């Protein structure tokens, strides 16, 4: 291999330098955390220390559910470790059909299609639905998988200001009336934990011809709405949404992605959607755990209530301590703490870790408006005692780093 002064890696030099400078200050690498042991949905051992997990998006705590684990073990024994093939060829097992049936029952839809990840579900749905001459209209703060779905496809991309009904309406009004448009929304936006005003957005979209609506409910599934379908169910717009995309990597507690829909031609997508066709299907153990978890989530009213209680208590606790949060009131199970700069965010993150609390750190360009965030995601399995400990650790870390007075 040649070592040149300038090569394809040169564009990463500023990032490498920034990272080296940060690590030289003695902080731990926020992006190199290893879970040595995971004891429960809310507890792990990190570098020998018992740590409360508050940044996993494991909202309903299904990762250690005994029925879910038993289903996975049985499928591993009965069907082997992997499918070694595409859904379209040798990779559709009975378990893939069963998880799609579970999704149809959960969402009350006629169609369900399972992908290998939620990322691929967005890539596949957006790039396949919206083709040349069509438009994808999306919120500026959309998840990377939504943007990447746009980049993979041939449609024109139109962004509107985050959660702005007025801007959505304005931008749709500028598009040719006869063009086909896919409007992509999210139920919960995961950076700040804020919820979309879906009824107003749907009303704005319906003023314009030839629009279909896709809602990503990655962070809403499991605990919004009477059946846990998501924000679109809670806000009563089920009939207006054409496609719901979701993931198994949050409330469901494993890995995988999906899209559900009532469209009569939905099944044709299995033949034409490249991120569905040209990749191996999920292992039998994963689809078995997902199907069991989804069916249990249909009866998870108590867990849901406890999760909301946890979210409200943490939001109030952090507000009372003087932290600036992503939303004025608790809107979801994500509570984002906004810090002034990278140094403060890293100092808080590391102090919390040393005290025994793991949260997610996020920084630009992933975050909106150049913010540095500590993102907390609550779990239905966090006990009252743990929420008390979390608030106490935030107080100690905030005082030690000067983030609060
Ligand atoms: N959509 C949103 C809004 C997400 O936050 C994520 C994951 N963070 C995904 C899709 C992708 O999900 P997965 O982890 O299954 O790839």
Automatic annotation (TrEMBL):
Its EC number is 2.3.1.47. The keyword Glycoprotein does not apply. Gene3D superfamilies: Aspartate Aminotransferase, domain 1, Type I PLP-dependent aspartate aminotransferase-like (Major domain). Keywords: Acyltransferase, Pyridoxal phosphate, Transferase. Pfam families: Aminotran_1_2. Signal peptide: none annotated. Its cofactor is pyridoxal 5'-phosphate. Residues 50-391 form the Aminotransferase class I/classII large domain. GO terms for molecular function: 8-amino-7-oxononanoate synthase activity; pyridoxal phosphate binding. The keyword Acyltransferase applies. NCBIfam families: SerpalmtaseAlphaP (NF047603), SerpalmtaseBetaP (NF047599). Belongs to the class-II pyridoxal-phosphate-dependent aminotransferase family. This is 8-amino-7-oxononanoate synthase. It comes from Sphingobium indicum (strain DSM 16413 / CCM 7287 / MTCC 6362 / UT26 / NBRC 101211 / UT26S).
